[in-house]
Predict the 3D structure of the following.
Amino acid sequence: MREIIERGTLRRTIILDEEYEMVILDKTNIDEIVDLQDKIVKNLNNPEVFVMDSREFILNSVLEKGKGLAIGVYADNKLIAFRTVSFPGKSEINMGREIDIPLEELDHVAHLESTVVDFGYRGNRLQAKMMKHTFKILSELGYYHILCTVSPFNYPSLKNVMDADLIIKALNKRGGPYEGKWRFLLARDLRNTDTREYTCNVEIENNNLEKQQELLKKGFEGFSLCRNRYVSDEFIIHYGIPYKDHVTNIFE
Ligand SMILES: CC(C)(COP(=O)(O)OP(=O)(O)OC[C@H]1O[C@@H](n2cnc3c(N)ncnc32)[C@H](O)[C@@H]1OP(=O)(O)O)[C@@H](O)C(=O)NCCC(=O)NCCS
């Protein structure tokens, strides 16, 4: 008997709503996860924005007990969305090493891996809804460093993770399965509940990668997004220096 963690109604079209259930997924759901992921990948407008995880990775690093977790959303008895998470432990792939998370805290790092929402169900904030439950579960399990990578051209995903208070810490071309694709590295420490304040604020277009790298190297962080025109891959990112780190010679 699966445990339902949320129930609600989804807007399908202006005249059609549909009930949904959000549940924790396990290894018995692997085919549904892979099928949904395949469908999304085959129909991506921009292949740059999403790199799919292999079946082996999902089985061994997400659905294996103690290695990660996955949340799914069902509507009409079909898996229509999921979020996967992995726990890298002290392994070399722990992205906490890239942003100087202390060694003794690496076991508290969770990597947000993939989220997908099936085409007909987008716009229902399902990524954000799954994220809320993901954070609650992670916090109960003792994971407080939440890290993820997102393409600088993936407005919906970046908007959702930044609305969940993840902050842009780095921007690089990533290797391995990313095959040199550009990715932001974002992080949130669930132990910090204070509102972050920034100084020296600047606005940069998402596709100005060089400028963003330059600012990040100087200690700036990306903390919010705005989209002036409804063009999914053109938007503005707000950068600033965290107030506590403010130094006067930052532009030298
Ligand atoms: C990213 C994704 C999961 C978000 O789906 P979602 O939860 O239905 O999205 P939301 O309803 O929260 O929308 C978030 C924002 O993106 C916008 N948006 C949603 N889908 C969009 C699309 N296809 N194109 C452009 N903008 C879109 C929404 O209007 C909203 O913007 P706003 O806050 O400025 O109004 C979904 O687009 C998806 O599956 N994409 C392909 C896979 C992927 O890129 N996953 C993320 C990387 S792992």
Observations:
- The first helix runs from residue 30 to 42.
- The domain at 4-190 is CATH 3.40.630.30 (Aminopeptidase).
- The chain has two domains: 4-190, 194-252.
